[in-house]
Specification:
- It contains 9 helices and 9 strands.
- By secondary structure, it is of the alpha+beta class.
- Helix 7 links the parallel strand 6 and strand 7.
- The relative contact order is 0.15.
């Protein structure tokens, strides 16, 4: 598995001198402009003024509306151009290529068919999309200052945006719900969430993406009534993959005693360890805090 813990990004520098000069210029008293009547575009605004008005309206957007629905996942240090979505027929081929490339197990076609059986918010099969940074805008040259005003207003300066790049599938996770082993403490039927696969492309490691995928599954389990009886998550990890075992330990999983013989037929040793993590009270509290933070941000 290609897994890595979160890494902190370096902070940005700050210049107090520059900030002070900006404050001084910003609060410098401006000359009082003569009062003019409010004009709508139909009441005499020039085309250039209409263009500025339109640009101002476009800039006054709500970023939460543009980014679409977000998961109330645990707090993670993830980049802003990264998002998690249920696997769809459009992203399933890329998800399949990642799994085939990185994992030693060859899954049947039925496994990938299950990944798109549910494309709603309750899906337990998800991919991480990486949107490249937006390209810098190129602008047409400004008109010469001596150009008559009437001519300038007829030819406003327009921003020419480059073609946006499509998001890239960089990681994926798929789980299924299984009956929980019978417990002497609970009479009601219980279930467990089995992490069938979790893979991440190497260039995108150390960005918190794998952790965010795991947290997105926990969030789905906590927020959908159909998973109310799920009490734990577990996965199989190759016994020799100490990095993956440590990754799970840092995220609250316990490595169970014993090994599963013959689980990895193409690896030596062919044994697997079982890692397990219960659904805890802390998960509910983290979900509540995440919702409160998002509510305050809006």
């Amino acid at each position: 598995m290609e897994l890595s813990p979160l890494s902190n990004s370096p902070g940005s520098t700050f210049s107090s001198a520059k900030f002070s000069s900006k404050i001084t210029s910003y609060f410098r008293p401006a000359a009082k402009a003569p009062q003019q009547p409010d004009l709508t575009p139909s009441q005499g605004l020039t085309r250039q003024e209409q263009q500025r008005q339109k640009q101002h309206a476009q800039q006054s957007y709500d970023p939460h509306l543009l980014r679409g629905p977000t998961l109330h996942s645990h707090k993670s240090n993830i980049p802003p151009n990264f998002s998690i979505h249920p696997i769809t027929p459009a992203t399933q081929p890329s998800f399949r290529r990642i799994i085939t490339l990185l994992l030693p197990i060859r899954y049947p076609d039925s496994f990938y068919a299950e990944s798109t059986a549910n494309t709603t918010s309750s899906s337990l099969a998800r991919v991480a999309l990486w949107q490249p940074q937006p390209q810098p805008q190129s602008r047409a040259p400004k008109p010469h200052p001596e150009t008559p005003k009437t001519t300038r207003s007829l030819h406003p300066v327009l921003a020419i945006d480059s073609e946006p790049e499509l998001p890239t599938v960089v990681a994926g996770i798929q789980c299924r719900i299984e009956p929980q082993p019978i417990s002497p403490y609970f009479s009601a039927p219980e279930h467990q969430c089995y992490i069938q696969t979790l893979a991440l492309l190497s260039p995108y490691r150390s960005k918190g993406i794998a952790t965010a995928l795991l947290h997105s599954i926990i969030t789905v389990l906590l927020t959908h009534a159909e998973y109310a009886t799920v009490r734990s998550l577990y996965a199989h990890v190759w016994e020799a993959n100490e990095e993956a075992l440590e990754w799970y330990r840092k995220r609250g999983f316990t490595v169970e005693e014993g090994v599963v013989e013959g689980y990895y037929q193409k690896l030596t040793p062919n044994t697997a360890r079982v890692v397990r993590r219960g659904i805890r009270v802390e998960d509910h509290l983290a979900l509540r805090d995440a919702k409160d933070s998002e509510r305050r941000a809006t």
